[in-house]
Write a structure and sequence with these properties.
Elements: H1 12-15, H2 32-46, H3 50-63, H4 68-80, H5 84-97, H6 106-115, H7 119-130, H8 137-159, E1 170-171, E2 181-187, E3 193-200, E4 204-211, E5 221-222, E6 234-238, E7 244-250, E8 259-267, E9 270-271, E10 275-276, E11 287-292, E12 298-303, E13 313-318, E14 329-330, E15 341-346, E16 352-357, E17 367-372, E18 383-384, E19 399-400, E20 406-411, E21 421-426, E22 436-445, E23 455-460, E24 466-471, E25 477-483, E26 487-493, E27 500-505, E28 515-516, E29 519-521, E30 529-532, H9 549-561, E31 566-572, H10 579-599, E32 607-611, H11 624-630, E33 632-639
Parallel strand pairs: 22-28, 22-29, 31-32
Antiparallel strand pairs: 1-21, 2-3, 3-4, 4-5, 6-7, 7-8, 8-9, 8-10, 11-12, 12-13, 13-14, 15-16, 16-17, 17-18, 19-20, 20-21, 22-25, 23-24, 23-26, 26-27, 30-33, 31-33
Helix pairs in contact: 2-3, 3-4, 4-5, 5-6, 6-7, 6-8, 7-8
Length: 640
C-alpha cells in the first residue's frame, strides 16, 4: 500500500551500482551508440526524470541486446518507481545473460518479487543470494533481514489460504481530492463530515472538511475559524462527535519541543485557535499523531520522550474530572518494541487499536498492526493486517469508519488527481473491529426542560466493564458509541437527580439502526420514581441475575450520595399466570433487590419492598413487547 510515508527501498547509488565503478558489461564489446544512450539515461535518472531515463535505457537495449548494465539500470528505475513486475522482468533478463556477474542483484530481484506479492519466489531467490560465501557483512545482514520478512509473508499467506479478498482502493473523488496532496483522512461517527490535511502550494499544510449532503460530498473547504494558520498544522484527528480536533504543530512560540500536540474546539464562530496541551502531554522531544477515544476520555499519541522502549512509542493520557490530562502512560511491551511504533488510531468501538511498527515482524518497513483491549484494559498480542494492505514499503495512517469495514488512507496511485489522494477500501472480515452504532440526544430536567450537563455511561452487562463514559456539553447534548456484539447498560447520572437507565441488547443482532434518546432526569423529591431497566430475573424466579449488579451498584451510589433518602422497591409482573402467584413473585423480586442493597451496606430502615403483581400495567399485555414492559422493577422516593 503506497502511503504518505513512502521511502525508497534502496538508494539511487545502489540502484545503479552496475553502471559506474562496478560495470558488469565489457564496454569494449558494447555498441558505442548504446553506451551513449545509457549514459544519457543515467543522467536523467540522477535528476529523478525517470520516464526519460526509461526511454534512454530502452534505446540502449534496442541498440545492443546484450548490454547487461542497461537491463540492470532499467530494472532499477522500474523498482524505484514501484513498477515491480517490470523490474523483475528486466532483472531476470540481466541474470539470464550473465548469471555470475549479476548474482549480487538477486537481493533487489527478491525485493521486487516481494513488491509484486510473489513471496514464495522472493524467498527462493534470497536463499540463493545468501548462499554466496563472498557476501560482505552489510550485504548479508540486509539479505537476512529480507529473508525473515519473506518467511513471515509466506507463513501469513499459508495461514490465510483460501481467503477471498480483493484489495481495490477507490479514489474519494474531486470533491475531496485536488491537484494538491491530500492525506490523513478522518470522519465523524455519523459519516456526515470528512476531515483531512491538504498541502497548499507545496509547503503550507491546512485542515479541510467536506460535508455529506445525503448523496455526495459537498466540495471540501478550509475549516472555518482560527485553527488554520500561516504555519503548518498536521496529523489531525476529529473526535467522533465532531466537537474537538487534536493535531500536531511544530516549532511554535508556545511549543515545549520540536513538535507538540494541540487541541481545537468547535464554537459558534468556527474552530478555535489551537491550544497547546501543556507540559504533561508535551516534552522537549517529539510528540505527534494524536487520537481521541470515542468518549474523549483517552488521548493516544506517539512520542520520542525519554524512558520509552524504543525510538518512538505509543502513549495514552486520561482526562480527569477536573478537565486536566494525566501524565501519559506507555502502552508497554505488548504494543511497543525497541523499534518505532506510531500512527495510533483507536476505533469507534473503543477497543481496537491500529498502529504502525517496524519493531514487530512484518513485510519490510513499517507495517500496520491491530490489537484489542481486554476486559481489564490489557492489550492482545498485535496482529499484522497482512498483504496487500501491508507491503514491503513503509505504511502510514489508516482510518476505519464506524461500520468497521470501510478504511481510508492516502496514496499516490495511478489515478491520483495530483500528489497524494485519499482512497477508501474494504477491510478483510478477519481484521475488522467491532461494528459501532451510536446513541445521541439531550439530557434535561423533567420539570423545567432545561438542559443538564451530566455523565453518560455505557457498561458491558456481562463483564461489568465500563466501555465509555462521556460528559454532555453545557446544553446536555451527548453522543456515545455502541459497539455491536455486546449487551449494555446505559446510565445517566447527575447529582440531585434520580439516575436514568436503559439497555441495548446487541450481542445477538447487528442492527443498522442508530438511536436518538432524549433523557428527562427526575429531581430527587417525594414520589419521584424511575424504572430499573437493567435488573433481570429468570422466568418465574426471584434470584437476581449477575448482570443486574451493574445497575444496582448505581442505585447504591445514589443512596450513598443522598444519605437521607428513603425509597420503595416496587416489583411488577405481566398478567401471565395466576394473579396471586404474580403478586407473590413480584414481592419476592422486590425483596431480592432490597437484600442486595443491604448487602452493600445500605441500612434496611431506608428501604421498603412492595410487590404489585399485575395490577399496575404500563403497556398492553396482549403483546410480548407489552408484557416485557410490564415485567419491571421500579424505585420510588418515599422521603428525602
Amino acid at each position: 500500500m503506497k502511503t504518505l510515508f513512502y521511502i525508497a527501498l534502496f538508494t539511487f547509488c545502489e540502484l545503479f551500482i552496475g553502471s559506474s565503478s562496478a560495470q558488469v558489461s565489457d564496454l569494449s564489446k558494447v555498441n558505442p551508440r548504446a553506451v551513449k544512450m545509457y549514459n544519457e539515461g543515467l543522467a536523467k535518472a540522477t535528476e529523478n526524470r525517470f520516464d526519460d531515463a526509461i526511454s534512454y535505457f530502452l534505446q540502449a537495449i534496442y541498440l545492443d541486446s546484450n548490454y547487461v548494465d542497461a537491463y540492470l539500470s532499467l530494472a532499477g528505475v522500474y523498482g524505484q518507481t514501484k513498477k515491480s513486475n517490470l523490474a523483475v522482468e528486466y532483472y531476470d533478463k540481466a541474470l539470464r545473460k550473465d548469471s555470475n556477474a549479476t548474482k549480487v542483484f538477486k537481493l533487489t530481484l527478491a525485493i521486487n518479487l516481494a513488491g509484486m506479492g510473489n513471496f514464495n519466489r522472493a524467498l527462493q531467490v534470497i536463499n540463493d543470494y545468501l548462499s554466496n560465501p563472498k557476501l560482505g557483512e552489510a550485504s548479508r545482514k540486509a539479505g537476512e533481514f529480507r529473508k525473515r520478512c519473506f518467511e513471515f509473508a509466506v507463513a501469513f499467506e499459508k495461514k490465510n489460504a483460501g481467503r477471498n479478498y480483493e484489495f481495490a482502493p477507490k479514489n474519494a473523488g474531486d470533491r475531496i481530492n485536488s491537484a494538491e496532496s491530500e492525506y490523513l483522512p478522518c470522519l465523524t461517527i455519523d459519516g456526515k463530515e470528512f476531515f483531512f490535511t491538504r498541502r497548499i502550494r507545496g509547503y503550507d499544510e491546512d485542515f479541510f472538511s467536506a460535508k455529506w449532503d445525503g448523496k455526495e460530498w459537498v466540495k471540501a473547504a478550509p475549516l472555518g475559524g482560527n485553527v488554520n494558520t500561516d504555519q503548518n498544522e498536521g496529523a489531525q484527528m476529529i473526535s467522533q462527535d465532531g466537537e474537538m480536533l487534536v493535531f500536531t504543530a511544530c516549532n511554535r512560540k508556545d511549543g515545549w519541543g520540536s513538535c507538540d500536540i494541540y487541541i481545537s474546539y468547535l464554537t459558534q464562530n468556527g474552530w478555535s485557535e489551537g491550544i497547546n496541551l501543556g507540559g504533561k502531554i508535551n516534552t522537549d522531544q517529539w510528540e505527534s499523531q494524536p487520537c481521541l477515544s470515542p468518549d474523549k476520555r483517552d488521548l493516544y499519541f506517539a512520542s520520542r520522550r525519554p524512558g520509552g522502549l524504543g525510538g518512538s512509542d505509543i502513549y495514552v493520557s486520561h482526562l480527569q474530572p477536573n478537565g486536566q490530562w494525566t501524565s501519559p502512560e506507555n502502552l508497554g511491551p505488548q504494543i511497543n518494541t525497541s523499534g518505532d511504533e506510531s500512527c495510533p488510531f483507536i476505533h469507534a468501538d473503543n477497543q481496537t487499536l491500529f498502529f504502525t511498527s517496524n519493531g514487530l515482524l512484518g513485510y519490510g518497513e513499517d507495517d500496520l498492526f491491530y490489537a484489542r483491549k481486554g476486559p481489564k484494559g490489557d492489550w492482545s498480542v498485535p496482529e499484522n493486517l497482512g498483504y496487500p494492505i501491508n507491503t514491503i514499503y513503509k505504511e502510514g495512517t489508516l482510518f476505519i469508519a464506524a461500520d468497521a469495514k470501510t478504511a481510508y488512507y492516502a496514496s499516490d496511485r495511478s489515478d491520483s488527481k495530483g500528489g497524494l489522494d485519499i482512497y477508501s477500501f474494504e477491510l478483510p472480515e478477519n481484521i475488522r473491529p467491532n461494528k459501532t452504532l451510536w446513541v445521541k440526544g439531550q439530557v434535561f430536567d423533567k420539570k423545567t426542560t432545561r438542559g443538564l450537563p451530566s455523565a453518560v455511561e455505557l457498561i458491558d452487562l456481562n463483564t461489568k466493564q465500563l466501555i465509555s463514559k462521556v460528559q454532555t456539553d453545557e446544553r446536555g447534548n451527548y453522543l456515545i458509541t455502541l459497539p455491536v456484539g455486546k449487551d449494555y447498560a446505559f446510565n445517566v447520572n447527575r447529582k440531585g437527580y434520580l439516575f436514568f437507565s436503559d439497555n441495548f441488547f446487541l450481542s445477538d443482532r447487528s442492527s443498522d439502526s442508530t438511536y436518538e434518546k432524549n433523557i428527562p432526569l427526575q429531581p430527587i423529591e417525594a414520589n419521584a420514581s424511575i424504572i430499573l431497566k437493567n435488573v433481570f430475573f429468570d422466568v418465574n424466579k426471584f434470584d437476581l441475575k449477575s448482570v443486574s449488579e451493574a445497575e444496582l451498584d448505581k442505585l447504591v451510589q445514589l443512596l450513598n450520595d443522598n444519605p437521607t433518602v428513603k425509597i420503595q422497591i416496587g416489583g411488577h409482573t405481566d398478567n401471565v399466570g395466576k394473579p396471586a402467584d404474580n403478586l407473590t413473585l413480584s414481592n419476592n423480586r422486590a425483596k431480592a433487590v432490597v437484600n442486595f442493597l443491604v448487602s452493600r451496606k445500605i441500612t434496611a430502615q431506608r428501604l421498603t419492598a412492595k410487590g404489585f403483581g399485575e395490577t399496575r400495567p404500563i403497556a398492553d399485555n396482549k403483546t410480548e413487547e407489552g408484557r416485557a414492559l410490564n415485567r419491571r422493577t421500579e424505585i420510588k422516593v418515599i422521603s428525602q
